[in-house]
Amino acid sequence: MAKAFFRLQKFLRRTQFLLFFLTAAYLMAGSLLLLQRTRLVVQQGSRGTSANQVPDGMARVGIVDPRTLPEPQPQPPVGMDAQKEPAPEQQLGPRWLMSRNSELRQLRRRWFHRFISDQEPVQTAGFKAMKHAPEHKGTYVGCFSDESRERTLKGAVFYDLRKMTVAHCQEACAERAYTYAGLAYGAECYCGNKLPATASKPEECNSECKGEKGSVCGGVNRLSVYRVEELRAGARRRRNVIYRGCFRAPENLTDTFPASLIQPNLTVEMCSEFCSKKEFPLAVIRGQECYCGYPTGRFSLHDGADGLLCRGLRNASSATEGKYCLVYQTPVQDTRCTDRKFLTTKSKVFVALSSFPGAGNTWARHLIEHATGYYTGSYYFDGALYNKGFKGEKDHWRSRRTICVKTHESGKTEIEMFDSAILLIRNPYKSLVAEFNRKYAGHLGYATDRTWKSKEWPDFVTSYASWWASHVLDWLKYGKRLLVVHYEDLKQSLIPKLREMVEFLNVTVTEERLLCVENNRDGNFKRSGAKQKDFEPFTQEMKDLINRYILTVDEALRGRNFSGLPREYVPR
Fold first, then answer.
1. Any idea where the WSC domain is (predicted)?
2. Is 341 helix (H, G, I), strand (E, B) or coil?
3. Are 326 and 316 within 8 A, CB to CB?
4. In sequence order, which residues have a C-beta less than 8 Å from that of residue 338 and are 6 or more positions away?
5. Could you tell me if 184 and 146 are in contact, meaning their C-beta atoms sit under 8 angstroms apart?
6. Which is nearest to 257 in space by CA: 283, 277, 220?
7. Which one-letter DSSP state was computed for residue 316?
8. CB of 475 within 8 A of CB of 423?
């Protein structure tokens, strides 16, 4: 009996081990199957893009090319034959646009979703692995303490959280006539003409440059400071000194401008160099007098005078003395509005900054951030924007630590998540061109002529023209509290419109800060000039379609007691 019991116990032990082994094998098989299915999906996606490769600029930030996705087809209204096309007048109505918008939503989400990858290179272990690379032309001065509230190097500020190098920072500061370049956190560049007061231990500057392995780019609250090599005379002439115009001089120039110089045979270059050394963005010339300062309430640069009143614009010494003066923009950045931070407490009102792609959302975020001093967030993640200083990109869009949240979404569910919204609208012709350029050449590039003449362009217009209209219609229908801003009005009357937006966000700002924003209005994502195409991209059929959408949106805006679309929108 005991022997039989022993055999049974031995069998049960083996069975227990066998069950454990089978369970583990089952879990491993399931994991392998899941990995294999994931691999198949990736392979299918790569096959779909082999014919049309993603542009380099888009691949770097992880943008999915919408050309690889199936184009959404508008569904016929309920009660109609599924194979029958809706009538043209039905296609252009608000109902059809809203239904089409829901079908486009999946396309938009897949397109705008950014994959957070390769954003922060792995920190090398130990300070010894890094060096102050000898190939840089500037002279390394040392490691200094960097307090954001009392920063000495504040003449210009740049971010590049992926490609910052010592040489890049030095060149940027040299082009703006600064003496010193300081790097912090491995990715931030600061320029100025005075050394920080407090030196730190060399080992405290231990952050590796994001774009240059083995080189030191400061540390946490620490600056690696370099003395910038003096540019050659030819390079100095190429510095970007911009003529701002002829203006009536204020009554007391000495009280208005904090720095001045009297120099016989004064030239524009001499005055600009003097003001740059003093770290002022404006150089003001009246005869042999040079004044340096900022745009202020006393001298806002809003009321320009006839250029004939400032005779001899090329020769400053012959400019009219007394009532009028010449004004130039120096290479120095106006830093009165560059400080930004996250909200210290969670916002009680969840505000959207909504627009159709290509309508100037990034530019509006730049203006809002510099006017309010707070970062803006995003429903998506764009590595290119994050790398250029939009730190709210990496913050979760529902954290409520940002002043507002960028979104291109529409539809009842997505809109009702927000308590209020700034709805930014731009001419659809300009928006479509801007978004097509961004899609195929990045934030600052232009699509090639070959791309414009391919079938991608008419397909793009067909899909996205209706999205432009349905986006506005959805926000007008489901938005709880809206401020409608037209891109063209913001561009033409920057300070009044920006003040209106800031008040909508319940933030109080000074007039000088708004003038600083106006002085830095372009930001880092403005395409350099309008690249002229030698052909008209819009066919007559496209124009007819877009113009009908414009009329539909204009009628909807007026129906909600908003001002209609600007006259320049229609017709072309």
1. 137-229, 240-337
2. strand
3. yes
4. 154, 157, 370, 520
5. yes
6. 283
7. G
8. yes
Nearest Cα residue to 443 out of 49, 57, 54: 57
- For the beta sheet containing 222-227, the strands, ordered from the edge strand earlier in sequence to the opposite edge, are 139-145, 222-227, 180-184, 188-192, 156-159
Could you tell me how far CA 420 lies from the centroid of its own chain?
22
How many helices, marked H, and strands, marked E, lie in the chain? Answer: 18, 17
User: Using an 8 Å Cβ cutoff, are 276 and 268 in contact?
Assistant: no
| 69 within 8 A of 110, measured Cβ to Cβ | yes
Q: Is 321 helix (H, G, I), strand (E, B) or coil?
A: coil
Give, to the nearest 10 degrees, the angle between helix 456-478 and helix 428-441.
Answer: 120
Helix (H, G, I), strand (E, B) or coil at 115: coil
SS3 215: strand
218, 184 Cβ separation under 8 angstroms: yes
Tell me which residue has tokens 């908003």: 562
10-residue block means of pLDDT along the chain (572 residues)?
57 65 73 52 40 38 37 37 44 54 51 41 41 62 82 78 87 84 91 88 92 89 87 50 91 91 91 90 93 93 85 50 86 87 94 95 95 95 84 92 96 95 96 90 82 90 94 96 96 95 95 93 68 76 94 94 87 57
